[in-house]
Specification:
single chain, 557 residues, alpha+beta, Beta-galactosidase, Chain A, domain 5, five-stranded antiparallel sheet, 23 strands, 23% strand
Length: 557
């Protein structure tokens, strides 16, 4: 089989397979949600044995206390607005929940004039916490805010918001939010006091709610590039490592993840951004995921507050990260937290690529230049393989007239034609598939870089030059895809022409057909492939020149 035809058909078919898989994931029928047998005002919590119990008074076992469901629609509280150098956050006194987080340095996917909102009412996305059972203050309890400043002033490192609430059976709680400068980590603490006459052993809960719908960024990627990024809960532990939980599995009650651990974290992951509760190490916690009767998903961590004697108090602190999936920040937050960045099934290749890309960015200060430098480096690494491929193509090109003559001579006897072809390859020491393997080896790198450019928030809204102001989006004027098409045409003309006229005609149109895909790829990926093609053309042209000098030696009949 002609090498060029095999290569292009493989790449073309593989691209179609990727796009079809992404389309099928996006449009496959979703199973109907299973409504749990519960009242709208309460959510049951699974016991360690797998049974469910209704809300009860605080108990030494986490599963014996109920966590309230959604607050009544008519109930409202006072909004407390907190401003820092990175975000504008809102806390509702009804439940003292973090109900809105707006980023000041990240814009919406399709409107760069508007700040991006992560937590908020659009997706019923909230960070809630409280005490389990009917006695403890929870996310349906009215809380009172203590007077204080809620804006991070110049030269100030942090700002605190304190809210208090009184429960039953002598339980009282103070919830403290601490926002820090240049940080997306919000310190959240529950100070629990026992003002009653009997010892109490309450359990605390920290949960994230979400309607399960994809973010605007994920929808934009799916619509434009045909790739579906992960949207759902994730649990990390030293025992099981990183576990993604599909929301469809939660619907069916078949979600598999580590339920009890002494380390790790619970997160809701979406494209480019993540929110996660980060319990301290060596603190026993129980994780639960469910879908409430109102259609909202809940991911929860239950943590024991320990036994509190009358007149005593204790504190349970669980930081919350609500921010972008920036690698340098994620690595500093918690072990394994950088795994929330979704690089697909070629993560093992994508990680080194991003590391190199980041180093080149530090060197150049421009992500587009970093992509060019990475392309040059990859080309140098694969230079021996590429050289072998182009040498094979050059040899094939030189013997094309003889191959055409053999086809004409044995037009009606395919067996003899194939035998004559093999003899020709053997005489000229040509492997007809010699140029194929080097290209196939590079395809995983191409796919891995594709996911790096889609998943790395560092490239989101990152400018390159002139008209390209977002390397993670389409080239607005399609300059790069057009240049890419031109380079593919040039490459085709440098390759041997198939002896079969029909095949030759198909190969002439193949660059135009294949280049259509690049009109729907992010500008950064097209830039990579364009530079790669230019370097390949130069390399192939030089090798072809070398073989043209020896053309008489190959022209023997």
């Amino acid at each position: 089989m002609d090498t060029q035809r095999l290569i292009l058909f493989f790449i073309f078919g593989f691209s179609l397979l990727m796009l079809w898989d992404a389309w099928e994931k996006e449009h496959r029928p979703k199973p109907p949600p299973q409504v749990q047998a519960q009242t709208p005002s309460a959510t049951t919590v699974p016991t360690p044995a797998g049974k469910a119990v209704t809300p009860a008074a605080p108990s030494p076992r986490p599963a014996d206390g109920g966590v309230p469901g959604a607050a009544a629609a008519a109930a409202k509280g006072e909004r407390i607005v907190v401003r820092t150098d990175l975000m504008v956050a809102e806390i509702n006194t009804l439940g003292a929940s973090l109900t809105r987080v707006e980023f000041l340095k990240h814009k919406e996917a399709k409107n760069s004039a508007k700040n991006l909102v992560l937590l908020g009412p659009e997706h019923r996305y909230e960070a809630q916490s409280g005490l389990t059972g009917e006695s403890g203050p929870n996310h349906r309890t009215p809380w009172s805010v203590q007077p204080g400043n809620t804006t991070l002033a110049e030269g100030q490192d942090a700002v605190e918001v304190r809210l208090t609430a009184q429960g039953k059976d002598g339980l009282a709680a103070t919830k403290i939010y601490r926002f820090k400068r240049d940080s997306y980590v919000i310190d959240v603490a529950l100070e629990i006091a026992n003002t009653g006459a009997a010892a109490l052993a309450p359990y605390t809960y920290f949960q994230l709610t979400h309607d399960g719908k994809s973010s605007a960024d994920a929808n934009a990627v799916a619509e434009t590039f045909g790739a579906q990024s992960f949207n759902g809960y994730a649990v990390y532990s030293e025992e099981k490592k990183f576990e993604k939980v599909q929301l469809t599995d939660v619907d069916k009650g078949k979600a598999e993840f580590l339920k009890q651990a002494s380390d790790g974290w619970l997160a809701y992951v979406q494209h480019y951004f993540v929110a996660a509760w980060l319990p301290p190490a060596k603190a026993a916690r129980e994780y639960a995921l469910e879908k409430r009767a109102d259609g909202v998903y809940v991911g929860r961590a239950l943590i024991a507050a320990g036994t509190i004697a009358p007149g005593a108090s204790t504190t349970v602190a669980v930081p919350l990260y609500a921010g972008p999936q920036e690698q340098n920040r994620l690595l500093a937050v918690a072990p394994g937290f950088d795994l929330v960045v979704d690089y697909g099934w070629l993560t093992i290749i994508a990680w080194p690529l991003f590391w190199l890309l980041e180093k080149f960015h530090l060197l150049s200060g421009n992500w587009g230049v970093a992509i060019i430098l990475l392309t040059v480096l990859i080309k140098l690494v694969f230079f021996p393989l590429s050289a072998a491929s182009y040498k094979s193509m050059a040899k094939m090109k030189l013997i094309t007239p003889r191959m055409t003559k053999i086809r004409e001579m044995y037009e009606h006897d395919r067996a003899k034609m194939n035998q004559a072809m093999m003899e020709l390859y053997k005489t000229e020491k040509i492997n007809p598939l010699g140029g194929c393997f080097p290209i196939l080896v590079q395809i995983p790198v191409f796919i891995a870089l594709y996911w790096v450019l889609l998943a790395a928030i560092e490239l989101r809204h990152a400018p390159f030059v002139l008209w390209i102001q977002d390397l993670s989006a389409l080239d607005p004027y399609y300059v790069l895809p057009i240049l890419m098409t031109i380079t593919m045409v040039i490459q085709t003309r440098l390759n041997p022409v198939p002896p079969d006229p029909v095949q030759a005609k198909v190969m002439q149109f193949m660059p135009f057909v294949f280049s259509v895909f690049f009109f729907f790829f992010p500008a950064g990926l097209v830039l990579y492939w364009l530079i790669n093609n230019i370097l390949s053309i130069l390399q192939q042209w030089q090798i072809q020149r070398m073989f043209d000098r020896d053309k008489p030696a190959h022209a023997k009949r």
